[in-house]
Design goal:
Elements (H helix, E strand, L loop, with lengths): L10 E6 L2 E6 L12 E4 L13 E8 L2 E8 L14 E3 H15 L3 E5 L15 H5 L4 E3 L4 H13 L3 E5 L10 H9 L1 H4 L9 E5 L15 H5 L5 E3 L4 H13 L4 E5 L7 E3 L2 H4 L11 E4 L4 E5 L2 H14 L5 E5 L2 E3 L3 H11 L2 E4 L8 H13 L8 E3 L10 H7 L3 H11 L6 H4 L1
Parallel strand pairs: 7-8, 7-9, 9-10, 10-12, 11-12, 15-16, 15-18, 18-19
Antiparallel strand pairs: 1-2, 2-3, 4-5, 6-13, 11-17, 14-16
Subunit structure: Tetramer of 2 alpha and 2 beta subunits.
Pfam families: Transket_pyr, Transketolase_C
Catalytic activity: N(6)-[(R)-lipoyl]-L-lysyl-[protein] + pyruvate + H(+) = N(6)-[(R)-S(8)-acetyldihydrolipoyl]-L-lysyl-[protein] + CO2
């Protein structure tokens, strides 16, 4: 069976006169592509400008209806920012990889379609041409195999960056990530260092179902020997990836597919090739005095939106971007709670044994006497991710959920009877 993503080796998608055309560029094994050129009557097609990695949308042509996967650049290609102080998360990751590969010949990238195809999300764009196939390695679809090769290379002093097309596929390689990479330094009494980065999109995207939508932050943060990072902004992505590549230990680097096309302002310092963020240090994205909200990855944006809404109702929320899940910046979190006296944690993953639960416990242990209200914990629904769009939205925390939980923490909730 031909892998769906491989159809783009055979076709180009062009827009002419408001109509999309699929142009077959080489013989295809797929019946769908047997016609040389055919128009697509777009019945239900909206590209989310914020989701330029892989967009999945329903298309209808004639009496046939199908779902297809569109790689970045096929339709409505993003016009990358030319402003020196604004870059996308995709550009930030690409530039970080480029600069670290240029600075250290031991750094190399491996994974499915990272070379000829330039990455499923175009993170590795231009790297094969610049560094060649010895340092940008296309692998077979066998995560266990190429992850083991990467760990072995790290044993011998190289610095592999292993890309998973989605972190859901890292489950195929979890033995090498945990037993081979995470435990080797301890089991060798410090004689073996494993400088390897495991990176790729993590968590929910849009309409990709239960097996491609899980958040693995809590999974990997549970493991001694691993460092777990999860960037939100372009600054995070650039600085944390550089730190991960330079680190002597294995790092799990959890990106978000929906953030790849997001643009963020960055300073000249961030764009400097020497820029690097410290692992284990959170960032206060918004200062406040009434309540502390912690979040990571895409949820940071939601928390900031919620904080703006709350500010109009007199609640001044402090938003902490965790950046690092393991090690966790407990000092920054507890210092904030001791100032605001309230805590709301936000994460996309499952609620039981999650990142939020660990943060709540840390605050209970270190700052309990400062709390003026019970802690509030927001997480994804305790079910596998639904495929239907309306159910998917209900399974992932939304801005309104953060607003309601924060009001509860501040004793500002509307009674149910009054709301009715």
């Amino acid at each position: 069976m031909c892998h769906l993503k491989n159809i783009f080796h055979y076709i180009n998608i062009e827009l002419k006169g408001g109509v999309f055309f699929v142009v077959v560029t080489k013989p295809s094994p797929l019946p769908l592509l047997s016609l040389p050129i055919f128009p697509l009557a777009v019945l239900d097609f909206e590209i989310d400008r914020k989701m330029l990695g892989v967009a999945r949308r329903k298309l209808g042509f004639g009496l046939f209806s199908a779902t297809r996967v569109l790689p970045a650049g096929s339709v409505l290609p993003r016009k990358y920012s030319t402003a020196a102080k604004e870059i996308t998360v995709r550009e930030a990751l690409n530039s970080a990889l480029d600069e670290e590969m240029s600075a250290d010949p031991k750094v190399f990238l491996m994974g499915e379609e990272v070379g000829e195809y330039q990455g499923a999300y175009k993170i590795s764009k231009g790297l094969l041409e610049k560094y060649g196939p010895d340092r940008v390695l296309d692998t077979p679809i066998t995560e266990a195999g190429f992850t083991g090769i990467g760990v072995g290379a790290a044993y011998y002093g190289l610095r592999p960056v292993v890309e998973f097309m989605t972190f859901n596929f890292s489950m195929q390689a979890i033995d090498h990530i945990i037993n081979s990479a995470a435990k080797s330094n301890y089991m060798s009494a410090g004689q073996i260092s494993v400088p390897i980065v495991f990176r790729g999109p993590n968590g929910a995207a849009a309409g990709v179902g239960a097996q491609h939508s899980q958040c693995y932050a809590a999974w990997y943060a549970h493991v001694p020997g691993l460092k777990v990072l999860s960037p939100y902004s372009s600054e995070d992505a650039r600085g944390l990836l550089k730190a991960a590549i330079r680190d002597p230990d294995p790092v799990v680097f959890l990106e978000n597919e929906l953030l790849y096309g997001e643009s963020f302002p960055v300073s000249a310092e961030v764009l400097d090739s020497s820029f690097c963020l410290p692992i284990g240090k959170a960032k206060i994205e918004r200062e406040g005095k009434h309540v502390t909200i912690t979040a990571f990855s895409k949820m940071v944006g939601y928390a900031l939106q919620a904080a703006e809404i709350l500010s109009k109702e007199g609640i001044d929320a402090e938003v902490i971007n965790l950046r690092s899940i393991r090690p966790l910046d407990r000092a920054t979190i507890n210092a904030s709670v001791r100032k605001t006296n309230r805590l709301v944690t936000v994460e996309e993953g499952f609620p039981q044994h999650g990142v939020g639960a660990e943060i709540c416990m840390s605050v209970m242990e270190e700052s309990f006497e400062y709390l003026d209200a019970p802690v509030e914990r927001i997480a994804g629904a305790d079910v596998p991710m639904p495929y239907a769009a309306n159910l998917e939205r209900m399974a992932v925390p939304q801005v309104d959920d953060i607003v309601r939980a924060t009001k509860r923490a501040c004793y500002r909730s509307v009674p149910m009877a009054a709301a009715a």
